[in-house]
Amino acid sequence: MNTFKFIPVNVLIDKTTTQLQFINYDHIQRIWQTDTTVYIELADYTILEVPNENVHNLIERFIK
User: Fold this and answer.
1) Which of 1, 5, 11, 57 has its CA at 20 to 30 Å from residue 34's CA atom?
2) Is the pTM of this model over 0.70?
3) In sequence order, what are the beta bridge partners of 48?
4) Alpha helices in the chain (DSSP H)
5) Cα–Cα–Cα angle for 57, 62, 64, rounded to 5 degrees
6) C-alpha distance from residue 34 to each of 20, 38, 64 (Å)
7) What does the alpha-carbon distance between residue 42 and residue 16 come to, in Å, rounded to a whole number?
8) pLDDT tens digit string along 18-62?
């Protein structure tokens, strides 16, 4: 049986609006931070912006 792991993040969908989305761990290629924004690159090269987040706090959500 396949078990999918998801992480909740508030993704920027336009310049002022964020939306809660659940991202599948297996689709994440890399994560980095510039200033106060964390970027998540997915396997299809889509880059999600997570404003007002710290990369260390985000990574801690993966560890449970």
Assistant:
1) 5
2) yes
3) 40
4) 55-60
5) 105
6) 20, 6, 25
7) 22
8) 999 999 989 999 999 999 999 999 999 999 999 999 999 998 887
The tokens for 7 are 């992480």
Q: Which residue has the tokens 């912006």?
A: 49
26 vs 39: CA distance, rounded Å: 16
Q: Token match 């920027």: residue?
A: 12
Block residue for tokens 């659940």: 22
The tokens for 64 are 């449970």
The token duo for 4 is 């999918």
Q: Is there a contact between 7 and 27 (Cβ–Cβ < 8 Å)?
A: no
